[in-house]
Amino acid sequence: MTSFEHPSRTRRALVAALGLGAIGVRSAHAQALVEGQNYTRLRNPQPVDSGKNIEVLYFFSYGCPHCRDFDPVLQPWLKQLPADVEFRRVPVDFGREQWANLGKVLYTLEALGAEKSMTSEVFAAVHDKKVPLWDGKAFFDWAASKGLDRKKVEDTYNSFGVTSRMGRARALAKNYNVQSVPVVFVDGKFQVSADKVGTHAQMPAAMDQLIAKARAERGK
């Protein structure tokens, strides 16, 4: 994990293999999670913004190498989310200007409806191609090379809306006491991360179990 991180890198082959399984199959063969060992129940549950749906908050950064390793596992899982689950990425910066700017990259792409299709490309650009997307001009040029309107990208990146969302993201990270990434919180009450369940490859099944637990506790 990154900042104040635990060393948990995953092999790409294992990541790709896990992505092929269906949610039901993953859950059926997953070892039951142990509270206090594989996940934590928050002492002070946080309010959720998802209404009747189960909320899943994923704290991450495009600058985090472990988040980059987790992404190929997460993407197939996201394609199979149940209808009553609302997933949301929350960027963290831990006081780092580069990570704060990468958070603005996320919210810019979300505002332009491009985040889902381009998140993996952002990770590849930052970590594989060494493109400094934390630099505004580099990001605007890169986004334009991907077919986005450069002026719209720049205006959105510098907008009050994106700045406000980053402020909200920092407040959430503080409320959830996020110390490292990647980390996932389910329905404002359960915390889980790869170092607690074994590897990134085991996270989808763990998240499925906690979603089911949250659903049961809601009486759904």
Tally of alpha and pi helices:
10
CATH topology: Glutaredoxin
**Which CATH architecture is right?**
3-Layer(aba) Sandwich
State the fourth-level CATH superfamily: Glutaredoxin
Q: Termini distance?
A: 33 Å
Residues in helix, %: 40-55%
- The radius of gyration is 17 Å
Q: Mean of the pLDDT scores?
A: 89
Reading off the top of the CATH hierarchy, the class is best stated as: Alpha Beta
Q: How many strand units?
A: 5
**Helix and strand composition category:** alpha+beta
Write the H/E string, N to C: HHEEHEHHHHHEEHH
Number of domains: 1
What's a concise summary of this model?
The protein is an alpha+beta fold and 220 residues long. It has ten helices and five strands, in the order H-H-E-E-H-E-H-H-H-H-H-E-E-H-H.
Summary keywords:
alpha+beta, single chain, 220 residues, 10 helices, Glutaredoxin, 5-stranded mixed sheet
Write structural notes for this entry.
- The chain has 220 residues and is α+β, with helices and mostly antiparallel strands.
- It has one domain (12-217): Glutaredoxin.
- Helices cover 50% and strands 10% of the residues.
- The chain has 10 helices and 5 strands, in the order H-H-E-E-H-E-H-H-H-H-H-E-E-H-H.
- It has a 5-stranded mixed β-sheet, with helices on both faces.
- A hairpin with a 3-residue loop joins strand 4 and strand 5.
- The protein is globular and about 50 Å long.
- Mean pLDDT is 89; it is low at 3-28.
